[in-house]
Amino acid sequence: MTTTKHEIVKTLIDCGATHAFTLPGLGITWMLDDFYEQRNKLKMVLSRSELHASIMAQAYGKVLGRPAVLMGMGPFTTTTGAFGVLEAYFAGTPLVVMTDTSCYDGFAMMGVYQTMTGDYGAADARTVLKTMTKFCAYATEIDEAIYGLQMAFKHATLPRYGPAALILKSTIIRREFSPNPRVTLHPSAGHLKYTPARPDALAVKELADMIKKADRPLMIVGQGAQNERAREFLQKVVESAGIAVATSYNGKGVLNEESFSSVGMLGTWGCKAANSALRNADLIIAVGASLGPDYMRFCDKEFLNPLRQTLVQIDVDPRNSGWVYPVKHAITGDAADVLEMLNNLDLGISKKELRYHWIAKNNGKNNYGIIPKYQSPEGLIHNTDIVRALDKHLTSEHLLTLDAGTNRIWVTGTMKIRTPGQLLAPGGIGGMGWSIPAAIGAKIAKPEKRVISLTGDGGAGMSVTALSTAIAENAKITVVVANNAGLGMVRDNMKGEHYGVNYPPTNFALMAKAMGCNSLEVNRPQDMLEALKEAERLDGPCLIDVAIDPAASHHPASDY
Ligand SMILES: Cc1ncc(C[n+]2csc(CCOP(=O)(O)OP(=O)(O)O)c2C)c(N)n1
Ligand SMILES: [Mg+2]
Questions:
Q1: Which atom in ligand 1 lies closest to the alpha carbon of residue 403?
Q2: Residue 520 C-alpha to ligand 1 middle, in angstroms?
């Protein structure tokens, strides 16, 4: 005789899970013994908040393209933990959520506190999770728990990736598992089998012919191409034919931004060069990019205009082609597959010089990749001083996680990412507090990388305690806090009094120290680069608290 919880842990391993990020309680606590037994195959990572656990799990999935498990009690996983689930939902990250109804044997209908069964007097975990997952199962039988988990892994890893959830009725978790359940359960592998549909060769040939004819072709590349294979073929295709590459926020850094093809990130918080190139392109090809109005200047007709320009969309989900704009041509397929097929076709190589001339002129005119220099008052530095230091410091060994706020705008607007895939951004819901836990999740996913997190003081206030997990897991990361004592981005956008946006001075270096983490403080521009180097020389994670001039307002790349 075995138990449901024992079989659950076995199934997680069968489905390929290597990490479960958690803050346990109630039904999840009952499983900890079984996790302990299997700790060499499936690592449990303890967080200080479901907020952090959910982000770490999401960042892990973003980096590796396979899901980690977010695990916790129903009332908290569906609320505090919803952050990472939502980010995964919007940004298309594989993630498996396993939670419970947090109810007590036989008392679920009697208004017991914490209960998430959906009964009278309880809240409903299923209703909450259904709004932010691709798949959401509720297991009230022991065999459903196993089958539901297999299905959650299946759905999370089918295109378009996303979060899938299994809610366990708490009462089944400890139950004995019959060796002969009524429903026959099968090994997980057979449920997870999948061969992706190949893109239509004629449709790809038609696109190649369109590119061949174009003088100023431009690709808008998004999250759908943020994997190793797609990045590799993207570079080959665009550099052999002189195609310009602009990106969404999630797509930033998909191509070395120093490539002759690169014009940077689109949108208000992107680069003028990208915005200008898009406006002047004659053929626009969206590659794994939904063309969300957030980076398409809210469909401004002077920006992309489908009547004036030819638009083609390549998307793994046909519903996304023609979603925001009408398209001339649409290809259903994985970005990597389409780019691989394009790589073998003539895309107008004879026009390469002409196209590169157009891109170079555009980039020169729009100061592409020039990090401006600003003077700050004594004892304070400007956001661009951090960006300049990062620009000098980052190597191909690094990953960089961003947060929300002014601090990130300076990176997306002025810094060129030279290593494809290096930048990890919260381009789904764009929430503050993402960067630090994401850096930890990324480091756990890729221990060989040097990981730096850039965050504002607002974001750090939400997530600095995640450093405790970095210490416990020996995840050596560097956290840079751009500390401008307030919600800079919101403050910068205000016309009137700075009301409701300033925080009292907070020393994050001391907070890090209190958790046993290294810390440094920087308040002179010339010390920033050395601090980044010093942080990496130290044993264990390090937080650098940087005194940023609160007057260092962001500037939009609005004029194109
Ligand atoms: C969780 C969350 N709440 C609110 C917002 C809206 N928002 C975007 S940027 C920002 C200010 C961020 O302040 P801080 O982290 O200090 O960064 P700064 O802009 O000062 O560099 C706010 C409130 C958000 N993105 N995420
Ligand atoms: Mg701030």
A1: 15
A2: 23
- How do residues 394-450 score in pLDDT, each as one tens digit? 999 999 999 999 999 999 999 999 999 999 999 999 999 999 999 999 999 999 999
Chain segment 451-491, per-residue pLDDT in tens: 999 999 999 999 999 999 999 999 999 999 999 999 999 99
Q: Does any ligand 1 atom lie closer than 6 A to the CB of residue 456?
A: yes
pLDDT value of position 558: 58
pLDDT at 560: 52
What is the total residue count of the chain? 560
- Please return the burial class of 39, using the count of CB atoms within 10 Å of its CB with bins 0-12, 13-18 and 19+: exposed
What is the rounded CA–CA span in Å between residue 272 and residue 555? 11
State pTM to two decimals. Answer: 0.98
Cα 261 from Cα 245, distance rounded (Å): 6
Distance (Å) from CA 409 to ligand 2 centroid: 12
Cβ of 82 less than 6 Å from ligand 1: no
Q: Is 406 in the pocket of ligand 1 (CB under 6 A)?
A: yes
Q: Whose CA is closest to 362, among 261, 247, 248, 249?
A: 261
Count of C-beta atoms within a 10 Å radius of residue 336: 22
For the residues 145-159, what does the mean pLDDT come to?
97
Cβ of 458 closer than 6 Å to ligand 1, yes or no, is yes
Rounded CA gap, 520 and 469, in Å?
A: 19
Q: What is the mean pLDDT of the chain?
A: 96
DSSP state for residue 92 in the 8-state scheme? T
417-426 per-position pLDDT tens digit:
999 999 999 9
Identify the helix (H) or strand (E) that includes residue 509: helix 508-514
Ligand lying closest to the C-alpha of residue 459:
1
Nearest partner of 442 among 59, 53, 163, 22, judged by Cα: 59
Q: d(Cα 417, Cα 423) in Å, to the nearest integer?
A: 7
Ligand 1 within 6 A of 457 CB? yes
Query: Look-up: residue for tokens 């897991």?
Result: 473
Give the closest residue to 525 by CA, choosing from 482, 491, 476, 479: 482
Ligand 1 within 6 A of 407 CB? yes
% pLDDT > 90, the chain: 95
Rounded Cα distance between 438 and 428, Å, is 13
- Region 376-401: mean pLDDT is 98
Q: With beta carbons less than 8 A apart as the criterion, state whether 547 and 379 touch.
A: yes
Does residue 482 line the site of ligand 1, with CB under 6 A?
A: yes
Q: How confident is the model at residue 177 (pLDDT cuts 50, 70, 90)?
A: confident
| Amino acid found at 223 | Q
Kindly state the average pLDDT of the residues 305-330: 97
pLDDT at 13: 98
**Strand (E) or helix (H) holding 520:** strand 518-522
C-alpha 54 – ligand 1 centre gap (Å) = 19
Single out the residue of 29, 30, 85, 26 nearest to residue 54, CA to CA: 85
H or E element that contains 454: strand 450-456
- Distance in Å from the first CA to the final CA of the chain: 69
Selection from 289, 352, 272, 367 nearest residue 323 by Cα: 289
